[in-house]
Each structure stands twice: as structure tokens, then as C-alpha cells.
Amino acid sequence: MTDLTQFRAEAREWLEHNCPPTMREPVQSFEDYYMGGRNPEVAHPDQQLWCERMAGRGWTVPHWPREYGGGGLDAEEQRVLREEMARIGARRPLDSFGISMLGPALLKFGNEEQKQEHLPPICRGEIRWCQGYSEPNAGSDLASLQTRAEDHGDHYTINGQKVWTSYANKADWIFCLVRTDNSGSKHEGISFVLFDMASPGVTTRPIRLISGSSPFCETFFDNVRAEKKNRVGDEGKGWAIAKYLLTHEREMISGFGASSGPSPGKTALETVGTDAEGRLDNSALRQSIAQYQLDARCFAATMARVGDEVKAGQGLGAASSIFKYYGTELNKRRNELNVAVGGENALGWEGDVYRGGEAARSWLRSKGNSIEGGTSEVQLNIVAKRVLGLPDA
Amino acid sequence: MLVLNEDQVMLKDAAAGFLADRATVSHLRKLRDSDDETGFDPAVWRDMADMGWAGIAIPEAYGGLGYGYTGLGLVLEQAGRNLSASPLESSVLVAATALAELGTEAQKEHWLPAIASGEKILTLALQENAHHAPLRTALRATRHGEHVILEGSKCLVTDAHVADAFIVIARSEGRPGAEHGLSAFLVEAGAPGVHVERRHLVDSRNVGVLTLHDVHVDSDNVIGDIGAAWPGLSRTLDIASIGLSAMLLGLATEAFERTVAYLGERKQFGRVIGSFQGLQHRAAHLFAELELSRSIVLQALQAIDAEDPELPLLASAAKAKLCEVATLSTNEGIQMHGGIGMTDEHEIGFFIKRARVLQHQFGDYNYHLDRFARLSGF
Ligand SMILES: Cc1cc2nc3c(=O)[nH]c(=O)nc-3n(C[C@H](O)[C@H](O)[C@H](O)COP(=O)(O)OP(=O)(O)OC[C@H]3O[C@@H](n4cnc5c(N)ncnc54)[C@H](O)[C@@H]3O)c2cc1C
């Protein structure tokens, strides 16, 4: 038996014994994603159990090194674990900004002490992080941010305001871009600092979205103390870290474009009906769905191709630069089609008939995909300049 | 793995180098302007065959290289980039595939080595009306003792006037629309009752009309089982669609790269036009579409070699996507060149003209998107 087959057999058996049946049911709504934290939101107690068990093996973050609480699995083992989890329909035990955003940045830019302190609690789902990037006057033009950090020897005092801070009111810690120096160009003088959201002087005010929920906040800092030992990288050199982290955020967001779920074409056969030959009985809708499914298929093939190129040692090709843009636009198209196909069912806002307005809320939420993490327009700017080599205006 | 292996990369590089030197747009222009009798350069074709390209996908047992369709696709892509005129599509991609899929052992032994060496050119005669509609084939095949008699005509026969033989799809039974009753026959050029008329399409390449009047075909030249050609023909058409998608990929990519280069050169309002965001975003979007195109073409080519049961779906996905993206790329190509793009002197116009013919052959965007939806179950 090769190591990999043995790994598969062991993983299969372990998952079989340890994954609670409730955690093998498909995710129905956003609450089914477990985000951890000091005061975790729990839709079902098994979420915590499942997270604990997986964390015990390092499998909440299988690809991180073992010494920081990860699974230390290589690419092949990760694939096997994914396959074995998919086989029984096991949910991901933990989703968090710590895993998808801060972790990769700390692994690359953090010092040993920072990694030891912050990574294991992320793996165990004990600390929930939020992202303090955007400000009222610094959105697409992120580098123009003005939140100030004043030097006080061993710590900084932070003053200013962030906005659109997702889950700031629920997060335990924040990774935050602050300005430590105003004298140079806007990309200089930015520092990347970590601090506790329970610190005195931090207030959050939730903002309600068009989808009805309030996942993000205005976040205010009034003389907040941040220890210097929690500054990642050198003072004034945070922009490179910020950008590196953004590539991971974009990767996470573009994954939405390849999201599974029932094909709108199949659903439409039920809600719209079929013609005598069994085709969808509305040729205009049929065409839109076919165009979407065609692009979704080509996009999935592109994600697979880029993954294979990386595995083959060819590095991350230029194709990856389109993922955020294309993936999020696709996800919006998919949601628009779901609304078209669902008809009245998809427009319901409340009540069991409409499953709490799930389709409508998902549709409205998807509009943010092409804004968060860098808008579609900004992504196109990046492709035009970095990949196609076209000059600035 | 959706990546090329070392052999494939070498093949691609060799094809790129050779075709960019010997069979370019300017060569095509010369063929057009001199009203060339052959419609391609026989010396170039001989060299291509000598390098083995005419037999890339033909098994070694029949004199080919046995590299599979992924290899052939790479050469086709380069031919698409350079708009190279040659019988690569007609004889190698389509006719050899039809013979391999449908032919008897004796027919394969006779014809495939001759195609692989470039000595013979074969071509498929399928389309009868303005659109690709293989099941509607009506050209009559009537049994007459030991013979079958063919009567009718075919259009859009690629390289018809230089072909040594035709693979004629005809109806021996049933009504147009039915799968059963489709048959394939080998008809040699110059046989009694065979008439070829060369036609000129916008792309300045070779097509013709084949008219068959009281053409007698003996039993040796019935390809496969009479009345049962559809499954093999259908697979042949899937492979042909994927091969043309690979050509369209090369064509659309080349038109795009030339356009981006122009955006970096042409100045208006005191700066290069490539600095205008209105153009930058369109170019970046097109780049994204081309990356998707590359992925689906490679996946479809590999599906041929892997005998993937999803081949029909992937063939339609690839052809529909490449028709869409080639349209976008060539239209943007003209628009972003401005007035110069409208001139015959500039080469960008050759790309839009060749693209539309390739798009049309074996089913255009509408045909394949509809088929993709059908095969997807809606
Ligand atoms: C759901 C959601 C969650 C978010 N979560 C977080 C979070 O957790 N933490 C955080 O820090 N931020 C978060 N954000 C903020 C997000 O990063 C910003 O909204 C985004 O960067 C855009 O900035 P803006 O909202 O100021 O829009 P603006 O930058 O004002 O953009 C407005 C419009 O102008 C266009 N535009 C701007 N500049 C250009 C240009 N150069 N060329 C062409 N068009 C341009 C934009 O594309 C957009 O269409 C979140 C946003 C959303 C929607």
C-alpha cells in the first residue's frame, strides 16, 4: 500500500467515526458556516464538536505547518482529504478570515513569536479576526488611508475610522492598516498592526445591507493601544503585506464563481415547464442559462488548469489574475438566473414558504462580490496594467 | 492534468516557428491576390507532412505519429494564429478522423498512410444547405445490384478542387432528420459523374461544391456499415468541432495580441490609446475570455484522447465558447484599430473573415449553444 492509499484509508475511517451526522448535511444558509471566536455563533452544537475534533488533527487548516496547529499535509494529501470529506458530504469545520486572509500573511511576513501566538488559536477556531482596511475616503484607493498610529515607544496609539469592516462587532481581533508616517508617497508609511477588538477605545456600529443582514460595521478607534510587538513587518512597510493578503482574499472570493448547487437549468424545467420535446419552455431563458453554464464550465476548467500548472511547477500563471473579476461576475449572473427561474419564490423576503427569503438574500448579497476585496473595475485595471502592460492614464 | 507535457511543448514550438515563417497572413494574401490555382503552397504542405504533422493523430500502425488529438490541436492552434493555408483541416483533422472512426480495416490501411504522408488529400462532403445540420442529410444513396448510386450535391466541401477523394455522407434509408439510414462512401475525384466547382468565401480559402450525378460506388468503397454511419460520424463531428475550436483559439489570441500591441503604439490626444480606461477594460475582459477559451479547448482535446463520455458536451462547449470569443476578439480588433482596421492593406481584416468561416463550419455559436443546453438536460 502506498503512503497515499494508507492515508486515504485512515482519513476515511477517522472521518466516518468522527464527523457527526448533522455535519454531513448540506449547508442551507449562512448560519451553517462556523466561524469560531470567543463567543461563537452556533446554529447547532455539533459545529463546535466537529471543529474541535478536526482541529485536534490539524485538519481545520490542513495545508498549514503542524507546529502552528495545521495539518502539515502536502498537496496530494490535501486532495485526498478533500475527496474523503466530499465523499460523506462533510462540511468544512471552520471558516474564517484568520484562515483565508491573515494566516497566509503571517506565515509569509510574521516573526516566529507572532506565528506562535496567533496561528494556533486560528486553527482551533478560538479567535475570530476582522479586516480593517477600508475607510470612508479610502476604498478602491486603499493606499490613501488616514487612520493614524502614533509612536509611544513599545506601543502605538491609534485614532481614526474604518468602514465596511465585516463582522467587526463579532470579531475578537483585527488586522488593521494604519498610517505611521505621512511624509512620503501614499504607499509608504502604512503599517500592518494587530490588536484586540476588546481594547478600550474601539467601538463598532453595524451597517444594514440590502440583503437585510448586518454583517459589516463602521469601526471607530479612539486612542486605542496596540503593542508594537504585534506590528507585522517593518514600520511603514505594510503595503506589501496588505497587497499579499488581498491576493488571498480575492482567491477566496473568486471561489464563489465555481460554486456548486443545483443547475438553474434543471430547476427551471420544474418552475417554467417543458415543451413537447422536453426542452425548457422559454427559449430566451434557456439561452441565458446555457450561456451562464457554458461560462461556468469554462471558468471551472480554468481554475483546474491554473491549479495543474502550479502543481507541474510552472508557477501561478497570468490566468489567475482574472479569477476575482470573472468568478464574482459569474456568481452574480447565477444569482440573477436563480431569481428569474424562481419567479415569485425567489422574491419572498420572510416566512417558511420562502425559506426565510434565502434566494432573494443570496441574490442581493452576491452584488457585493464584485465590490469587496477590490471591485471588478479595479481588477480590470490590474489586468490591463500588470498583465497586458498598458500604460497609466 | 490540464498542462502540456514536454513533447507537446516541443511540438507547439516547432509548429509556431515553422508556420510563422512559411505560412503566414501575407502568404495567404499572395495566394488570394494571385488567384492561386491550388489555394495553398504545395511545398509548404510537403514540409509539414515531412515533419509528421499530417499524421500526428493517426495511429502508428497506419503510418502516423500516434500523438493523439491534443498534439494535433496544438498544431491547429498555430495554424489558426498564422491563418496558414493548408489541407490540415480538411484531410488531417476531418477526413482521417472519419476514416479512423468509420472505415474498415482495408480502407484504413489503404488511405490513412497516404494521408499521413501528405501524398493524398481527402475531404468530407457533408453539408447540403446554408447551415450545418448533419441529420438532415438528404443526398440519395440507392442500392443497385452490387453498387450504390449517389445522386445529389454538397456544399462547403473544404479543399474540394484539390482533393483526391471525398468521403460523402448520404442517406440510404429514412427521412432527413433520422439517425438511422446515414451512410458514408468513398468517392474518388475524377470518377464518372463527379463534378467539382471551386467557390470563394470571404476567407480566401478553398471550398467547393461537389455534384454527384449517377455516381456508382462499389461495395469496397462503402465506409463501415451501410445505414449505420451516425455514431462514428457524430464522434468525427465532435472531434472536428474541437479541432476548429483550437484553430479559433489561435486566431482569436493572435488578433487580440496584435490589437493590444496597437493600443501601445497609436497616439491620440497626446498619449497612447492604450492608456484610455474604456479600452483597457475591454482588453482586460477579452483577456479573461481568452483564458477561459484556452482551458476549455485543452480540456476538450484531452477528452478526445481519453475517450471521455462527456465528449459531445465538451465539443459543443468548446465550439460555442470559441465562436463567441472569436467574434468578440475580431470585432474588437477592427474597432480598436480604427480606420486602418477597415483597410484591406492591414492584416486584421483577414482574421475576422477567416474566423467567421471557421465558426460556421460544423456548427456555429447558435447550433452549439443549443446543443450544449440539450446535452445538459434542458
Ligand atoms: C460585502 C462587503 C464586505 C466588505 N468587507 C470588508 C472588510 O471586511 N474589511 C474592509 O476593510 N473592507 C471591506 N469591504 C470594503 C471593500 O473593500 C470596498 O467597498 C471596496 O474596496 C470598494 O471601495 P468603495 O466602497 O469605497 O468604492 P469606491 O472605491 O468609491 O468605488 C465606487 C465605484 O467606482 C469605481 N472605481 C473606483 N476607482 C476606480 C478606478 N480607478 N477605475 C475605475 N473605476 C473605479 C469602483 O469600481 C466602483 O464601481 C467590504 C465590501 C463589501 C461590499
UniProtKB/TrEMBL annotation, chain A:
InterPro entries hit by this protein: Acyl-CoA_Oxase/DH_mid-dom, Acyl-CoA_Oxase/DH_mid-dom_sf, AcylCo_DH-like_C, AcylCo_DH/oxidase_C, AcylCoA_DH/ox_N, AcylCoA_DH/ox_N_sf, AcylCoA_DH/oxidase_NM_dom_sf, Mycobact_Acyl-CoA_DH
GO cellular component annotations of the record: plasma membrane
Keyword Flavoprotein on entry: yes
Domain Acyl-CoA oxidase/dehydrogenase middle: 130-224
Alphabetized UniProt keyword annotations: FAD, Flavoprotein, Oxidoreductase
Acyl-CoA dehydrogenase/oxidase N-terminal domain: residues covered: 5-126
The family this protein is said to belong to: Belongs to the acyl-CoA dehydrogenase family.
Protein's UniProt name: Alkylation response protein AidB-like acyl-CoA dehydrogenase
TrEMBL record, chain B:
Origin: domain of life: Bacteria
UniProt KW Nucleotide-binding keyword: no
InterPro entries cross-referenced by the UniProt entry: Acyl-CoA_Oxase/DH_mid-dom, Acyl-CoA_Oxase/DH_mid-dom_sf, AcylCo_DH-like_C, AcylCo_DH/oxidase_C, AcylCoA_DH/ox_N, AcylCoA_DH/ox_N_sf, AcylCoA_DH/oxidase_NM_dom_sf
Keyword vocabulary terms for this entry: FAD, Flavoprotein, Oxidoreductase
One term of GO molecular function: acyl-CoA dehydrogenase activity
Membrane-spanning segments: none
Cofactor requirements of the protein: FAD
Pfam families noted in UniProt: Acyl-CoA_dh_1, Acyl-CoA_dh_M, Acyl-CoA_dh_N
Ranges of residues in domain Acyl-CoA dehydrogenase/oxidase N-terminal: 5-119
Ranges of residues in domain Acyl-CoA dehydrogenase/oxidase C-terminal: 234-374
Domain Acyl-CoA oxidase/dehydrogenase middle: 135-200
Database matches in SUPFAM superfamilies: Acyl-CoA dehydrogenase C-terminal domain-like, Acyl-CoA dehydrogenase NM domain-like
Family as reported in the entry's similarity comment: Belongs to the acyl-CoA dehydrogenase family.
Full protein name: Acyl-CoA dehydrogenase
Record organism: Chromatocurvus halotolerans
Origin organism lineage: Bacteria, Pseudomonadati, Pseudomonadota, Gammaproteobacteria, Cellvibrionales
